[in-house]
């Protein structure tokens, strides 16, 4: 089969590993192993000084302004990109995350438009996740309708929308009236290299041995840190020797005690810090992460280590009940998480099976090779379908 030529489009270069929680870089790397991928420039042409000014702002206003300004200046920004697309002989324009980057883009002759993200602005904002953040009257009444109109125009022109969760797919199909067979569910992978199956998993949890919990993330509150800490306290009140290791951030003093170990951000390219990360996940019994987010790479990373996850059943969290862990209903309290953990004290065989099924899910679905193989297959199938109908 002829190797695809892909024009890769995003508002931030995939050569930078940190933005978009590493997802942009992983998507680009996985596609590049299977196709000839050219990264289209992120410059705004004559409006480049404005782009630099926006990126110099603090994270909050920068995130809000950069895609809204891009939509307003789409014709100007897209002009040099369209020239490159006309002469590049690309089979597909593949956009990751930044839907605004597709504004003003003209489909290359005979080519496809494809997109992937864990959420869209309107789906996110209307969800339980987005409603946890405040919004101004101007945003709700003026900006939101304009955003939805732009989304419907951009998403409606897609050939493929690759959604990492059923949640996003179902919401997008209903909200944007997508043509049939446009949206597909393709889970994303873990943003770590495969650690391989463990040969010495921790013994199933009991009342007589320490119970090791771990939480991953840079934002203690967004990742459900307070609920995780209260669950730790609830377990200890029941006589369980529970411990919590936090990676990626340091909890505030009022959410710390002698049973909380904060490792802070770890650089996985540093052998010493990578070993700390691996050691924590290898010896943990559960990833306890009742976070508020639209996907969550941490759950894929936990599955890579055969580590079951406990979370809230919100958004597109990639945790399957009884397979990679347990998503508890929204509104669950510390005692609910403690109850779920203690169910396994009397069912060691079930705990071992849960670890095995979590690792199996990583090997089959929750890795970037599986995602990219499926994405390339869908692109090839769509190209063949369009070719037959033209």
Distance, first to last CA: 21 Å
The strand line-up of the biggest sheet is 2-1-3-4-5-6
Q: How helix-rich are the residues, as a percent range?
A: 40-55%
Main beta sheet:
6 strands, parallel
Secondary-structure element sequence?
EHEHHHEEHHEHEEHEEHEHEEHHH
The number of helical runs is 13
What shape does the CA trace take?
globular
- Which band does the percent of strand residues land in? 5-15%
Structural class: alpha/beta
The radius of gyration is 22 Å
- Identify low-pLDDT runs: none
Number of strands: 12
Mean pLDDT: 93
Overview of the structural elements:
This protein is an alpha/beta fold and about 400 residues long. Helix content is about 45%, strand content about 15%. The protein has 13 helices and 12 strands. β10, α10 (about 295-305) and β11 (about 310) form a beta-alpha-beta unit.
Question: Main attributes?
Answer:
single chain; alpha/beta; six-stranded parallel beta sheet; 13 helices
Compose a concise summary of this entry.
This protein has 390 residues and is α/β, with parallel strands linked by helices. The chain has 13 helices and 12 strands.
What is the fold's blueprint, element by element?
Elements: E1 5-9, H1 23-32, E2 36-39, H2 48-55, H3 59-72, H4 74-88, E3 92-96, E4 112-116, H5 121-126, H6 137-156, E5 160-163, H7 166-176, E6 183-185, E7 211-216, H8 225-237, E8 242-247, E9 260-264, H9 271-283, E10 286-288, H10 297-304, E11 309-312, E12 325-328, H11 334-343, H12 348-364, H13 368-389
Parallel strand pairs: 1-2, 1-3, 3-4, 4-5, 5-6, 7-8, 7-10, 8-9, 10-11, 11-12
